[in-house]
Amino acid sequence: MIILFNTLGRQKQKLKPLKDRLVRMYSCGPTVYDYAHLGHFRAYVFVDTLKRVLKYNKYKVKHVMNITDVGHLTSDADTGEDKMEKSARREGKTVWEIAEFYTKDFFDAMEKLNVEKADIVCKATEHIKEMAEMVQKIIDNGYAYVISDGIYFDTSKLKDYGKLAGFNPEELKAGARVEFNEEKKNPTDFALWKFTAKDQKRQMEWENEFFFKPEQIDLGKVTAYARENPNIRVEKAKRGFKLVVKGFPGWHIECSAMSIKYLGKVFDIHTGGVDHIPVHHTNEIAQSQAALKKESVKFWLHNEFVLVNNQKMSKSLQNFYTMHDILARGFDPLSLRYLFLTAHYRSKINFTWESLAAAENAYKSLKEKIASLKNKGKVGKKVKEYKKKFLEYINDDLNTPQALSLLWQMLKDDELSDKEKLVLALDFDRVFGLRLKDARKKIPKEIIKLAEERLKARKEKDWKRADELREEIRRRGYKIEDTEDGYRIFKA
Question: pTM for the full model?
Fold first, then answer.
């Protein structure tokens, strides 16, 4: 039985997949206008851990993740510039080149963190048709209206709008979380489709048609918009009026449209960071309800922030670190994964280079211990006891700190044989994803030759030569440790 904290219900709930042993899951992916930072990495390590726990429990997982390569503006209030267009101008490249470069960099980092790629990775720019169709459904169901810069969602039409974030009606009216646009009917209304401004040159824009009934549109105002902006045309149609516009999708519509396309109208889990709760995910819920007339997601799971000096790590505060910073300082990316596992995904974690160094030391010690275990001995009943305890921890809302503590407890248990410890460690690593099996890889002959030469030098008390050989072994990526009967070698 897997228990997960559902943000929608604000409590732990038992996971009951809609389709027997298949869990369908959608994750908000990166906006590929710049390098991902450690806060982003935590989100994807969390998602990867969730998938591993599901598979450990013998569930099948269908995982979809989007790539936002259009429509994410610099403000959550549907104002500002498209992040992709801004980045392209800054770097003197096309938006397509920007998207390709940062998408590749993102997945390179994910591979280094041993994060399994989603079954389906879908780009926003390749699903414009699906988004436009969903916007039309929302219009048809009476939840949309037109202002000068786009088609907007009328949040007042939904009685329970804001339930994911726990907003009450007065907070919504105050519009405390967004900038106020005087054209909008309500402060919390958001863009479904943005029009290209008359004086704006965009690399990413599409021409689409949207149909409105006569009572859904203020013809006088829309005609005035069309006179001012050549990217807007209004024509008569059988159903009322046809709006022909050049523009691009709102950020929120992409996730609703693509998750439904690949996972169905109702699916099991949607993940993201806690910063998605008040705006992005709240608006996803509203859109899906308006288009489908029902809830589309059963479980909403959110990971907490990575902090720097107790402030959220973010691009806007310029207090972020990337994978390139991790590598430049000589850290193993899997030490970062280890660090993330030491904190519960719903707890904030304050990042420092000292905390990463401590995690790296612990991770190295763990690998050395795994490498030193001899694959000998019997496998007894106590193995089942440890597995049962491990399952209890990970199935209790992914309690990785407790599970990691159990791993160390098990490795220090004198009642277990080396073989039992090895079996359990590798079994637990199906969830941890720390590549502990790599610590068991056969040591190359040339490294063993150097180690034997060093042992000979030590016996002859040639300490200078012994130190030189130790350094040569280290330079080649291995660590040697002296023992009573000789030495042990580990992958560094």
Answer: 0.88
